[in-house]
Amino acid sequence: MRQPRVGVLALQGDMREHAAALRACGLPEHAVTEIRSVDELARVDGLVLPGGESTTVGRLLRIEGLDEAIVQRAAEGMPLFATCAGVILLATEVLHSQQPRLGLIPVQVERNAYGRQVDSFETRLEVDGMGEMDAVFIRAPRIVATDPRVRVLARHRQDPVLCRYGRILAATFHPELTPDHRLHRYFLSMLGPDVG
Ligand code: GLN
What we know:
The protein has about 200 residues and is of the alpha/beta class. The protein has one domain: Class I glutamine amidotransferase (GATase) domain (Rossmann fold, 3-Layer(aba) Sandwich), CATH 3.40.50. Helices cover about 25% and strands about 35% of the residues. It contains six helices and twelve strands. It starts with 5 loop residues before the first strand and ends in a 6-residue tail after the last helix. The model has no long low-confidence stretch (mean pLDDT about 95). The structure holds glutamine.
């Protein structure tokens, strides 16, 4: 089996930390690439959609034609790992917003829903099958509803914060900002033995 190649969407947001986390999991330098075009997307086996500003990224995705390309690759089975703004981009429904989205995961999200006082916070989660994990939330979206087919892997209070839907892993927090790389490893395991 050849080395899987993973792309990190690099239109805007914290792509460098994701690339570093993937390399820390053992992927060599050349196996992690920044994705800004449809051509670059064609060369990877999986894609990370980092945090950032979902309206900006959504607009840029459309300009580049990457929105349709990602939907197409996802339909063909390419694994996706979305964090924070990435989850907003993949959601089927964003409350009070018509912003561009890919609609690949059947959840309803509300942007910046944790209120101004707790804009950003750190907490400890209990992750299904993995145990405890520190999580950093930064102006995070709140997942307010999930389709029953979406598997919730962790919650903060009542809210789902880590979900799996087919070959999509979605975290409303920032696993790239903590030294614990278990979620990146888990994502890499989703690339599976049929890569290459
Ligand atoms: N608040 C951002 C948005 O709504 C997401 C924040 C993040 O990705 N850290 O797009």
